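Service request form, structural biology core

Requester: graduate student, group of Dr. S.
Request type: structure prediction, single chain
Budget code: on file
Notes: please return the result as structure tokens.

Sequence provided:
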Amino acid sequence: STMERCNESVSKLVKKKLIGYSFQGKDIRKHLGIPDLSRDGGKYKPPGVMIVPSYDLFPDTSQTRSTLISTSKNISILTSNGHVKVFPDSYFSDVIVKSFTSDLGDENCHFVTLHDEFKESLNVNETFNTDKKLKASIARTINWNTLQTNLNEFDHIKSWASVVGGSDLTTRTKCLRDVISACNNVEGVTYVGLHRIAGNISLYKSILGNCQKILPQHLKSCILETKSVEEILVAFELGVNVIGSSLPQLLAKEGKALIFSLSNNSKKPVQSHSFIDLKNPICARDKSPISGSCQCMTCRRHSRSYIHHLVQCKELLGKMLIFLHNFHQLLNLFSSINSESA
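Core staff response, request fulfilled:
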């Protein structure tokens, strides 16, 4: 009958459905196409690679189910195949160790420890009964930091301990002190979740500044995510060593191009910055590049009018070209910062 045929079709589909999700690490050098160290007689220096848990870096798009559930032993991440448990020890052995099987050099293999960041800071003004959850988040993160750094017996793999604490200065600094005392043999610390309070730049600067004062000189510091030029400059001014950013991508999605005017002042590397909205009709007949002083591929080969056309037609190429330009501008900024601070 028709019903029997439908049931048979459904059963076949169920058998084909993927169950679970694999968080198995891949050889980073092969996965990213990094040449071997033996290239050019050993003169080639491969780039540094840092592996980070990225579940905290993206907004929660689910309205009905939480993307992250944590317990004292593991976190459970919502994937396309349901919630999948990730344990701190298996994260290190199955992802970190297997990813760094190739020789990238003694200073090029880094990872951020698995952490439990309570997302209280999505809205600083919102009131919750957060004390218990926040304390549990900090306790788990410190325990997992200790476990993973103790497991790391490899000289070429550098550990970065996670520091959590939401938007509260007292709990954030307490977590940092506990991490410093509990975790030995770490390269530095990573301030997790600060991008969630960056809308309040004064609070962002206060928390980051106080943490940097507590941090011992032999330890480095890292921020995984920045979403504005102001956040990047504040982190630089306060001496953060590693600054991650999704700014080029975010601006490209909005059709905006970033332009920096760099200075020779080491304390203030950016003289000014501005944005060009390539969706603006005024760009339709503009044959000039996004920036006349920029040497990126987008500015050398394409005009504002062409990119405006691509953006208006919702062509993916438009966002790609804007991203390339924004990425080039950000690389120039960081290059200027590195040369001035060297």
